[in-house]
Amino acid sequence: MGSGRTLRLIGFVTWFNVRMLLTSEFFILLTFISPLIFATLGFFLFRSGGGTGGHTLLYVALGAGMMGVWSTTLFGCGGAIAWQRWEGTLELLVNAPTRYDFILVGQTFGAVLFGFYGIVATLVWGVLLFGMPIEATYPLILPLSLVAAIVSLGSLGMLIATTFVLYRHANALGNLLEYPIWLITGLLVPVATLPLWVKPLSWLLAPTWGMEAIRGATIGADPPTLAIVMCFALAVVYYLAARITLVFVLAKARRDATLSLQ
Amino acid sequence: MESLDIKRDSAENDDSMTGLQDPPISPPAPEPSPAVPPHPTPSSRPSGHAIEAIDLVRTYRTHTGVIRRKPMEVEAVKGVSFQVEPGELFGLLGPNGAGKTTTIKMLITLLLPTSGTARVMGFDVVRDTTDVRRRIGYVFGGDRGLYDRVSGIDNLRYFAELYGVEPSEQRRRIGALLELVGLTGRENEKVEGYSRGMRQRLHIARGLLHDPEVIFMDEPSIGLDPVGARELRHTVRSLVDAGKTVLLTTHYMFEADALCDRIAVINAGRIVALGTGADLKDAIAERTIVEIETFGVTDEAVERLRRDDDVSAINMEERDQSQILLVQSDRGAHITQRLLSLLGDTRVGKVVAREPTLEDAYVHLIATTGDDEARAARAASVQ
Amino acid sequence: MTALTTSITPIAPDTLRSAWRVFWYGGRMSYGMLFNWARPSIYIPTLIGGPTFQLFFFAALGSYATNRSPAYFAIGNAVQCSAIAGVFGMTMAIANERWFGTLPALLATPANRVALFAGRFMPFVLNGLVVSLYAFALGVVFLGVRLAPGSLAVAGLALLATVFSCTAIGALQGAISLRLRDGLFGANLITMSILLFCGVNIPLQELPGWMQLVGNLLPFTHGLEAVRQAADGAGLGQVGWLIGIEALVGIVYAVLAFALFAYLERSARANATLDVR
To answer: What gap in Å lies between CA A110 and CA A17, rounded to an integer?
Structure first.
């Protein structure tokens, strides 16, 4: 299949999933409202501690926004394959002529893109309610940072999709993994303040570097080169891992006759 | 074309019916615990009937259209009256949308009648709801209505509490009921693993927990395979043999015929016939049904048949290559010759003249009663 | 056939004894029947794992951003976890009745409606207490939470009142969702609002006026304040009034929820709106 057609397919599936998520009350809450609540919490907490500068506000808004992105990625991708099975479309998609992992890519990137709408909402919130200034230290690098973050999160989302489907109650895992990831990826609490043994874990996770990349371009002192590189490097690793697990998962499903719901 | 007029309000007024069959199989159950003071109001004086419906009417308010919503009133039940004697197995038979479920829900206090009265064991369904609920069992068909996540016996234990079954009697009673419905040995499994048939049986067990005098069953055999349906009929019959009163709704005509002592045929919110299965067949007994297999019959030909004086009704069934005309006539088998000549050049296959079955009676009733528009639509579709 | 014809003597439904049994035994069974998270494979990640990490997250964030001790945030979030259990439990209980189609069967019984309703509360309040106690234990072991020994009972009472009132608002939310559809949305909204408005991480005084008003109208606020003061050693004399307010708030929400149910049942009988089939 030509790469042009592949891209169009992925683009179509991505957009399709974004529209679907827009119709879900749960995801509206998760992606738009939840980050606003955490941003407000963050604003008041930091203000209570004396931080009221523009940079602090932007730091909080971006951090809370990314928290929303992570939640959307987690729930949106974690359930992706399970939903398809529930809707009865998994069988069809797997047997379709196009490669299934392209469809999966579209679905996971759709969820991540949707999550990034949440960052926009949080920034608007900050401006309206707290007079947050919008500025960027390296405005030209910012788009690259965003792309890097989206790509690495999307790939991690693929890996999440292929592994969560092995666990019957993917939503419960989602419930479990919001707070700990928010914590160790340094979205609001810097990784530097975390205990030593946690740091390697942080460095392996996409949100850590994605956040660094975006933060570096907006309020950082130095350009976030390392962060951007790590984003893309991790994206490759995640993608390969996802491909391998996908082969395993689909083979298992065919063996256990669980491609469709019993 | 005249319509068969065996509309019923009370059976006494009818001359073509053979009258009510009225033997109570066993005397009505004794009044429960003396701790309950009898109601002083006249509405609760037992009137002898197990179930009494008097001019029940039920209308719903709905809307037409999406943007400019016009309120509309739909009359689901348009004045239904009947009585059921203690120990009787009474069937409410009708097509989907006829008003069966609405009627039964009014009788079991889940719906308020728009007008009219109903009494169960002498208690008014609107005023004495608790008294009614204590004395009735409610069994409905379908997949839902049970707590899937717990076992069958837990479902029964829960409802036993809700019905106030004495704790010391619960275990024995639940055990006996499980045996009655054939679920012994499966009661500890979660209901989510039960088959349709098992769920149905659990529904029945639940409806009998508090030993009700009257049992209402709403389409209990829906979705059951033939074996399951047969077992169900056997169970229902044995309930009545033990002295319970059962009111059953169904759209399976042969089920009503095989099971019920008396049947009320309901269509478009009204009772259009009431009596035993034999009575209903008798009502069109003098009729002959001529089945004519035709190939490519034209509308004009059918119309010619319909206009004949001796033809009282025509139904047409489409098959793959042929059409089967079911012609009802008062005239007896010798009408066959005239029908064939009226058909003219139409290619004809098998011709059978036979006695009417209950299905014919039912089909005829449904076709000739009901809303005027529905009737016209049906008439148009048979052309 | 003998079992069938033996007449049994049902307890008259309008007696206290029948109502009690519906409340106690019926209520206990609601947990397994209606709680989506009842099985360990879901319970552990959601009600043990989740609260664990929530505690550490806010302890870290709070102490980094402000100069308060982690213990402050640990207490607030430990109590908030009980709110999660109560609100979601109750919401699920009601939504599942609808999902399983058991409402017609329930409404056809003569069971006392108040006992039926109150019975549903009970297991979820208890569950909330269990979750909170676990979270408190975590706080004591890892985050420096100290409970003055004499006030354990008072703190426990305050916690009970708080869980009760959160379960009550869960019931109200559940009743609303019977007509308006998605219960999970409302449940999430309530628990997140509690996180923001009720003094879990930020004392009410530091919030703008309108937020304080919201916080005072929501359940949880007064109960949490009572728990905090009790942890510091306050006795019943000092926090009793706070516990009383919390309990009252809970009763108000419970009464509202019950009234809404009664209205919905009546309206369903009149208009067939409650999907009674």
So the answer is: 5
